[in-house]
Every structure is written in structure tokens, then in C-alpha cells.
Design a protein that fits this description.
73 residues; two-stranded antiparallel ribbon
Length: 73
Amino acid sequence: MKQSESTVSIFLPTEGNGPFVEGALNGKNFRVRTGCVVEVPTYIASILAESQKGLQISQASVEAYSREGGKKL
């Protein structure tokens, strides 16, 4: 008997080109709807959280670069 995976509720804001975030991990594909609260396995929630952190860091770097008129920081 297979144990059920633990799940968590998450909310991803709608950004980009579509209503979904898609990815894969260890041969398992996933598609998560954005703009509403959804239940996902814990390992997918952690992947999405790390992705969001990376996006925030990238956006902060671009904003700092733009704020300085394109000068190297």
C-alpha cells in the first residue's frame, strides 16, 4: 500500500504568459494553476518557493542596475 503524500495549500500570483506554472522533478511533471489557492505535494511547494526567491533576487538586481542608469554596480 502506497502512503499518501503530504500536501500544502499555496497561492501563486498570476504572472507571465499563462494561467499555469509547469515544471518537472525526477521524471514527474507538474502543472500548478496560478491566481487561486491549490493543494500541492510538499516537495512541489518547496520547489516553487525556491523559484520565487530566485525571481525576487533577479528582479532586485535588475532594479538596482536600472536605478543607476545601467552602470555596473
